[in-house]
């Protein structure tokens, strides 16, 4: 019986075993954790009952404000925002890392070509020995060219788990980029509403200052004629100073809000924009679509997707750590030519070839692999807790925003009723003054009370609109999942 067929059969069996094992990967296979969530938001009934414009699709919710300037500002931010540019760069980095992890599964090849010439020194020990021999030539040459290949056979799946983790990290980077997009859209809309709010309050503060000036003038006249005491004049002057002090504060707030909007749009702060610099009313907030309920957050909120992908990556790294318990097998080969005479290149005598089968096994490392596995399991537990926390936080964000929308709109409605009543009171005071039954001071007092409630209503309307923006952000609006 021939020995050669037996050796071939043994080699074939060994290779079959290696490739069969290469189809396995140690460590737990990933499965998304189950999450128990309510089917509807607790604040949804109140949100659905609120009056407002028809709801818009979540992917382009800001168009529901029906403000062309806002639409332009958001479009500019999406095109030029530098935070988004950073997020896009991070996605490119993660993509490159993923490609590198996948490439580690495949053989590598290299080509090496070199020509060397040396001149032997007579002063070192080697030179002294050679110099004693007849025909000693102190000059030497070497020409070498070789092509080699190496491959680590991923028998126990460590490299595949690493590639799996890199892929999950890449997907997390993509989701983080989407989260940055949503955040930029919401922050841009919120800052735009703030700009319109400060413009409206500034215009009203200037009106209030003018009203207080007229009141001081009247008090001065009454005091000079002996009709009113000095106390009335000093109180009017104090109220004027308090009201006038609001103007520079609001002017500074407007400059800050405009600069913030410019930064969001990726342009130099202070850039003139007629459409933004001209006062415009606070845009009317649209309705909010809540039919999908909390479970939709798992696929709509990019930050939840980021947490889930980090969880998947940490799960894969458990297998990567476990693979260090097992041996690493590798194959390498080298073919080429080496000669001291250039003319003998690629001749039979100059040919060289090498084949190597390698085995590396961490048998004694004093618990290092154990520690690495425990660390990987700990990071996985941490990622799971972070994922569950992200879901709870996402739900809380929605509920908080819904509550704020409802309460601020209720506040605005009450202030609107108060504004209507004070308008009638002002009209009555003016009519009484024109009839001669009241002095003009009563009209100015009515103006002051009306303007104060108007300012409070502007703030409430702004807070309600900004809460709607926060609601869309909390719902994961601004992209097509």
Overall pLDDT metric? 85
Listing every helix as H and every strand as E from the N terminus to the C terminus, the arrangement reads HHHHEHEHHHHHEEHH
- The CATH homologous superfamily is named Outer membrane efflux proteins (OEP)
Q: Judging from the principal axes of the Cα atoms, what is the shape?
A: elongated
Q: What is the CATH-assigned architecture?
A: Up-down Bundle
Q: Termini separation (Å)? A: 67 Å
CATH topology: Outer membrane efflux proteins (OEP)
Spatial strand order of the main sheet:
1-2-3-4
Helix content: 55-70%
Whole-number count of domains: 1
For the biggest sheet, the summary is: 4 strands, antiparallel
The count of strands amounts to 4
Description:
The protein is of the alpha+beta class and 481 residues long. It has one domain: Outer membrane efflux proteins (OEP), CATH 1.20.1600. 63% of the residues lie in helices and 10% in strands. It has 12 helices and 4 strands, in the order ααααβαβαααααββαα. It has helices spanning 3-21, 44-49, 68-80, 82-103, 125-131, 158-224, 230-264, 274-277, 297-300, 302-322, 368-435, 440-474; strands at residues 108-119, 139-153, 328-339, 351-360. A 4-stranded antiparallel beta sheet has the order 1-2-3-4, with no helix packed on it. The longest helix has 68 residues, at 368-435. Mean pLDDT is 85; it is low at 1-7.
């Amino acid at each position: 019986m021939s020995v050669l067929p037996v050796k071939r059969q043994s080699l074939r069996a060994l290779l079959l075993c290696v490739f069969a094992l290469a189809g396995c990967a140690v460590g737990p296979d990933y499965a998304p954790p189950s999450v128990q969530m309510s089917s509807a938001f607790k604040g949804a009934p109140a949100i659905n009952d609120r009056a407002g414009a028809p709801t818009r699709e979540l992917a382009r919710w800001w168009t529901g404000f029906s403000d062309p300037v806002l639409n332009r500002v958001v479009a500019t931010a999406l095109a030029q925002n530098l935070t988004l540019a950073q997020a896009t760069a991070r996605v490119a980095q993660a993509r490159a890392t993923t490609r590198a992890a996948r490439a580690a599964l495949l053989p590598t090849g290299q080509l090496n070509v070199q020509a060397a010439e040396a001149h032997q020194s007579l002063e070192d020990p080697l030179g002294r020995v050679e110099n004693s021999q007849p025909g000693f030539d102190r000059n030497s040459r070497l020409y070498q060219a070789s092509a080699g290949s190496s491959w680590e056979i991923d028998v126990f799946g460590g490299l595949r788990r690493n590639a799996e983790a890199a892929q999950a990290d890449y997907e997390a980077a993509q989701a983080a980029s989407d989260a940055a997009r949503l955040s930029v859209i919401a922050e841009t809309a919120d800052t735009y509403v703030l700009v319109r709010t400060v413009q409206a309050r500034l215009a009203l503060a200037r009106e209030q200052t003018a009203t207080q000036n007229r009141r001081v003038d009247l008090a001065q006249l009454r005091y000079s004629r002996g009709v009113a005491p000095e106390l009335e004049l000093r109180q009017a002057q104090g109220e004027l100073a308090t009201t006038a002090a609001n103007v520079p504060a609001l002017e500074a707030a407007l400059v800050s809000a405009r600069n913030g909007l410019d930064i969001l749009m990726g342009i130099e702060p202070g850039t003139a924009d007629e459409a933004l610099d001209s006062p415009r009313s606070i845009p009317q907030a649209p309705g909010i679509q809540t039919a999908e309920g909390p479970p939709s957050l798992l696929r709509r909120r990019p930050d939840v997707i980021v947490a889930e992908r980090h969880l998947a990556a940490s799960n894969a790294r458990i297998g990567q750590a476990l693979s260090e318990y097992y041996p690493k097998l590798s194959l390498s080969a080298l073919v080429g030519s080496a000669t001291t005479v250039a003319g003998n290149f690629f001749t039979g005598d100059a040919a060289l070839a090498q084949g190597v089968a390698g085995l590396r096994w961490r048998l004694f490392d004093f618990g290092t692999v154990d520690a690495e596995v425990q660390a990987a399991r700990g990071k996985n537990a941490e990622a799971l807790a972070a994922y569950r926390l992200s879901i709870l936080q996402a739900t809380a964000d929605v509920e908080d925003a819904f509550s704020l929308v409802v309460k601020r709109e209720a506040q605005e409605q009450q202030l609107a009723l108060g504004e209507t009543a004070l308008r009638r009171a002002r009209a009555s005071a003016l009519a009484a003054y024109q009839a001669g039954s009241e002095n003009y001071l009563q009209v100015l007092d009515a103006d002051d009370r009306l303007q104060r409630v108007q300012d409070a209503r502007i703030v409430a309307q702004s807070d309600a609109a900004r809460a709607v923006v926060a609601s869309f952000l909390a719902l994961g609006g601004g992209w097509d999942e």
